Amino acid sequence: MRKKLIITNSIIVFVSLVILLIVSGIIISKVNDNNTKEEIKSYLNIAEGVFTGSNYTETVEIINNAKPTLRITFISLDGEVLYDTLAEGELDSHSNRPEIINLGTVVTRYSDTLSLRMMYVASVDSGVYLRVAIPISSVNNIIFNFMLVSIITLIIITILSILIMMPINKETLKPLKKVVDKMEKIVEFSGDYYYDNIETLSHHIDKVSNLLNERIKDVEEEKQKVDFILNNMNQGLIVISSDKKVVLVNDYICNIFNLKKENIINKDYLYVIRDVELQKQISKAIEDSLISSLEIKVSDQVYLVYFNTIKNSWLTHSNSKSGVALLFTNITKTKKIEIIKKEFFANASHELKSPLTTIIGYQQMIQEGIIKDKKEIELATANTIKEANRMNAILSEMLELSKLENIKKPKIDDVDISLIIKDIINSCSNNIKNKNLSINLDLKDVIIKMNTDHAIHLVRNLIDNAIKYNIDQGFINIKLDKNLLTIADSGIGIDEEHQTRIFERFYRVDKGKSKELGGTGLGLAIVKHICSLYNFNISLKSKKNQGTEFTIDFKS
Ligand code: ADP
User: Fold this and answer.
1) How far apart are CA 317 and CA 323, in angstroms?
2) What is the Cα–Cα distance from 83 to 132, expressed in whole angstroms?
3) Is the pTM of this model over 0.85?
4) Would you say the CB of residue 509 lies under 6 angstroms from ligand 1?
């Protein structure tokens, strides 16, 4: 690059000087030309002043004394050369010479007589043409000398400029070389480039620019990936720096706290986290790097917040405190299940404990001889068996529920629902008879894809209840058409306040009545579970003392 710069600069200097030389040469030549013209005109005037009509030699002598190179010619008016200072011998007629034709005008032309380019001017004086001429070569000599000196000066200036420019360029280009060296550290270069070649620098810049573009693209892609993961994860993430500012937050957190991301970033975390206990824990984590977890409630949702302290400098700004990452997991469902399970175990133990207490009581009384009478013993035994059966029924239904809960993919059959209804009605005929119930069936052939045992359980529980909670001489209307099964009874009905709860485990409107009728409180919970397993919709219409109607939509 340095060489190129020197060469370029030298060429510029040289060309500029050449142009200067040519222009000044032309100007000098013009000026000189004009001066010479004026000069020979003035010599002509002098000659005119001196000339009397015949004193050729005297006139010539005076003029040549002043300017020896001048040619002076005397020509008669008919063109005959009377006297000439340079030409020898007989000369042809000069009447057709341009300077004779255009008297007073300076003419530059080639002289056939002297074989030279000359400048002429002529006039008429004392009946004779008086002509003064000067060879152009004498004019050109001046220009030639000037050009020669100029060219030598030009060469000297060019060489001097090269010598001066070399070290200056070296110094000037030093920072540029440093830039090139630095660039070479950023990118690996290949090819036959020299550091002082401008192409190398341009090549390096191109490469660095491409590399930067690629890096920027990579970084953008990485950011998009990270943003996608952060914003699509099923957990909330919020990162707080040691100076208590929110550094990073994902969409999940914004949704929990109903805030916009741009309003949270770089704000104090207290702006986002309003839970006092959580604020305390964050503060502790920042100060003491303590890792912990906490359950908080936001609206009606429960979250488990896990704290993770981070010691990265971009979060701590190199102080001794920590940054904290909080991970929010929604545990509302798990919590609910936990509560349901707790309640279920409490209820189950209670449900099982009471028949067991009765059984133990009777057996102790028999053992201790408190009951001796045969009839009393028979009654006690019958009650014991009844309670044991109740326990058995509860345990069977608990087992059934547990099986349903753990089922992942039930075995699917083509189930003829009307056939199942008829079978169940048959098997319950005694109970139906005991209550003098009238059964009205309106059944179309409907085949449903589900597990047969589940279908039996579903229909049996609903028909059982329709019988159990019916009045004497009541009715049960069962209708099956397309995807709808309706079981309506004329029973005791369910008050509105209980209607949403009767599907809960062990929930009974009238505990005593249910017990008396051999109910476990799990029948409708099983029905509900089977429906949700197959996405069937179950609905209920009921009014106290006016009967109940359950409808199952198999296709919903
Ligand atoms: P249970 O074993 O007590 O019948 P279920 O889960 O089958 O338990 O029913 C829960 C409660 O819903 C019952 O105790 C009863 O109070 C009420 N119930 C269910 N079906 C009917 C119905 N057809 N008529 C009136 N009450 C009903």
Assistant:
1) 9
2) 12
3) no
4) yes
